[in-house]
C-alpha cells in the first residue's frame, strides 16, 4: 500500500475552500436559474387569460369542446389535501401539474363538454383548473356515475 502525504498551509487550505465554495455557488445559481427559466417557459405555454385561449388550449391537446363552458366556478384548494384530492393530484402529477403548490388558494374551474371523445356514445367533460391565468390542472371525465377519468391528453389507440 502506498500512502502519499503532503503539507498544505492554512492559507492555501482556506484559498482552496474558498474556490470550491465559489464553484459550488455558481453551479447552484446556474441550476436555479435554469429551473426558473424552465418553469417560466412551461407556465407561458399554459397561459390562458380568456375563454378563447382555454378552448384553444384544449384544442391543442386534440379535444373539440363547446365554445362556452357548461360550468365555471371558483374553488378553494384546501391547505391540506384530503385523501380524494391526494388521489386526484396523482393524476395531475402524471401530467406535470401539482395542486399542492396551490394549497390554500382559490382557483377557477372551467368545464367544457367534449364533442369528440373517441369510440364512445357517452358524454364527456373537460375540466381546466386555472390560477392567475395559468392552467394548473385538469381532467377529462365521463358523465356516467362510475365513469372514466383521465388526464387532459387526447387518448390514442382507442
Q: What does the model show?
A:
With 158 residues, the chain is of the alpha+beta class. It folds into two domains: 10-45; 48-150, no CATH class. 36% of the residues lie in helices and 22% in strands. The protein has three helices and five strands, in the order ααβαββββ. The protein has a five-stranded antiparallel sheet, covered by helices on one side. A hairpin with a 2-residue loop joins β3 and β4 (134-142). Mean pLDDT is 85; it is low at 40-44.
Number of helices: 3
* Biggest sheet descriptor: 5 strands, antiparallel
Which band does the percent of strand residues land in? 15-25%
Helix content: 25-40%
Q: For the terminal residues, how far apart are their CA atoms?
A: 66 Å
Low-confidence blocks of residues: 40-44
- Shape summary: elongated
Average per-residue pLDDT, rounded, comes to 85
Structural class: alpha+beta
Over the alpha carbons, how many angstroms does the gyration radius reach? 24 Å
Q: Name the helix and strand elements from N-terminus to C-terminus, one letter apiece.
A: HHEHEEEE
Strand order of the largest sheet: 1-2-3-4-5
Number of strands: 5
Number of domains: 2
Give the topology:
Elements (H helix, E strand, L loop, with lengths): L9 H36 L5 H10 L10 E6 L6 H11 L12 E9 L9 E8 L2 E9 L6 E2 L8
Antiparallel strand pairs: 1-2, 2-3, 3-4, 4-5
Task: Give the structure's gist in a few sentences.
By secondary structure, the chain is an alpha+beta fold. 36% of the residues lie in helices and 22% in strands.
Amino acid at each position: 500500500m502506498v500512502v502519499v502525504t503532503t503539507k498544505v498551509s492554512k492559507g492555501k487550505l482556506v484559498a482552496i475552500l474558498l474556490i470550491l465554495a465559489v464553484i459550488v455557488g455558481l453551479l447552484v445559481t446556474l441550476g436555479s436559474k435554469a429551473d426558473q427559466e424552465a418553469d417560466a417557459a412551461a407556465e407561458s405555454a399554459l397561459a390562458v387569460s380568456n375563454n378563447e385561449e382555454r378552448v384553444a388550449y384544449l384544442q391543442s391537446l386534440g379535444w373539440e369542446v363547446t365554445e362556452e363552458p357548461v360550468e365555471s366556478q371558483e374553488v378553494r384548494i384546501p391547505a391540506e389535501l384530503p385523501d380524494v384530492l391526494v388521489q386526484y393530484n396523482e393524476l395531475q402529477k402524471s401530467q406535470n401539474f401539482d395542486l399542492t403548490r396551490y394549497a390554500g388558494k382559490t382557483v377557477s374551474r372551467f368545464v367544457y363538454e367534449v364533442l369528440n371523445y373517441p369510440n364512445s356514445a357517452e358524454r364527456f367533460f373537460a375540466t381546466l383548473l386555472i390560477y392567475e391565468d395559468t392552467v394548473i390542472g385538469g381532467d377529462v371525465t365521463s358523465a356516467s356515475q362510475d365513469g372514466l377519468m383521465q388526464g387532459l391528453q387526447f387518448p390514442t389507440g382507442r
